[in-house]
Amino acid sequence: MRLPACWSGIPERRQGAFVIRLAGLFAAIFAAFLILAPAGFAQSGGGPYAYSVDAVNPGLGPVPEDANLETPQALLETFWFAGEVNDWDTAQHALDLSHLSPADQAARGEQLARELHTVIKRSMLVDWAGLSDRPDAVMESVSSDHPLAGQARRNISLETMRLPERTVSLRISRLDPANGDPVWLFSKQTVDNIPMLYERFGPTPFEEALPASLRKQAFWTLAWWEVIALPIVFILALLAAAGTFILFRKLMKRTDGTVMERIAKALRFPAALFAFVGTFLVLRETVFVFSGVVKDVLDPLQTLIMVVAVAAIILSLLEAVLDLIRERRIDDMDDPEHDEDRNLYTSLSAVRRLFLVAALLVGAAFVIFSSGLSDTLGFSMLASAGLLGLILVFAARSALSNIMASMQIVFSKVARVGDAVMWEDDWCYVEKIGLSHVQLRTWHDRRLMVPVDLFASTPFENWTKTDPSLLRPVSLFLDHRTDIDQLRQAFEKFVSSDDDVICKDEASVQVVGHSDRAMEVRFLVRADNPSDGWDMHCRLREAMLIAAADLDASGEPGADTAVLPREREVVLGKDGESG
Question: Which residue ranges run through the membrane (predicted)?
Answer without folding.
Answer: 222-248, 269-291, 303-325, 354-373, 379-400
